[in-house]
Each structure stands twice: as structure tokens, then as C-alpha cells.
Amino acid sequence: MSPFLAFVVADQAFGLPLGAVHRALAAVAPRPLPAAPDIVCGIINVQGDIVPVIDMRRRLGLPEREIDPADRLLIVHTRRRTLALIVDRVGDLITCDDHDFIPVDRVVGGTRHVAGVVKTADGLLLIHDLDSFLSPAEAEALDDALAASP
User: Fold this and answer.
1) Which of 48, 59, 87, 121 has its CA 20 to 30 A from that of 76?
2) 116 versus 45: which is more confidently predicted?
């Protein structure tokens, strides 16, 4: 099983496959991107690449708040694109045995954006599926917004 990078949003623990995470950066205010899906709060320039910024609180249906200087941006890769995820803090690297990973459909069917759950000493870690992170409609709207951006 691959290692996972833990992160926290609104005191809730989540994780991503380490292979999908490129780097963590200090949070910066993104430039607005008109006509982008609601979960996209703007774009940033990462070493010459324009990267959409996803508000994890919006994606998770949690109460929104302004970006805090202590927040982090996780730069991640999906099959189609690079994204920056606004998180409250980056946690530890989690390694686990295969039997510690429970596919989401064995826990709750029809859960979007979550690949599974990992049991850790501190509790449960929801592992996100980045390739289903944007719905097809959101991905198309994002592509259109990026194409129209100056």
C-alpha cells in the first residue's frame, strides 16, 4: 500500500496518496477566476504554471472562512490537471498495511471524492480520490473558465 499524506480541514483529518502530492506551500490569496465552479476560489502561479485553487471547505460542505496566513496549499496532480487545495494544516506521512485501508464502498456506498478510510492510532483518515474530485460538469466549467482567463 502507498503512503498517505494527512491534512486537516476544520479539525477533520483527511489524506491523499503521497504520489499525488507534489508539494506544500504557504497559502497565498488566489487571483479570482470568473465563471469557475463554486469550489474554485481562484488561480495561482506556481513556477510559471497557472493552477486552480480549490477551497476544501466548500468541497466538503464545511463553514467557509478567509484564508489564514497559517493555512497551506497542497499542490496535487490528478490524471487531468494540477490543483492547489487550501488546507488548515499538513499532517504526518501515514504508512499502513493493506488491511488498514478500507475501500469506501465497504463503508458507505455512493460517497463522492473519497476512495477509502485508513485506520490509524489516532482514529480514521478519509482518503480522497483526486480523480473524482471534480465532477465532469465542474471540470468542463473549469476548463472553460481557464480558457477565457487573460
Assistant:
1) 121
2) 45
The continuous run of DSSP H or E covering 136 comes out as: helix 136-148
Cα separation of 93 and 62, whole Å? Answer: 24
**Which residues, in sequence order, are CB contacts of 124 under 8 Å at separation 6+?**
13, 117, 118
Indicate the domain borders of the chain.
Answer: 4-148
- The Cα–Cα gap between 31 and 43 comes to 5
Q: Which fold has domain 4-148?
A: OB fold (Dihydrolipoamide Acetyltransferase, E2P) (2.40.50)
Burial bucket for residue 60 (CB in 10 Å: 0-12, 13-18, 19+): middle
Q: What is the mean pLDDT of residues 76-80?
A: 92
3-class SS shares of the chain: helix, strand, coil, % to 5: 20, 45, 35
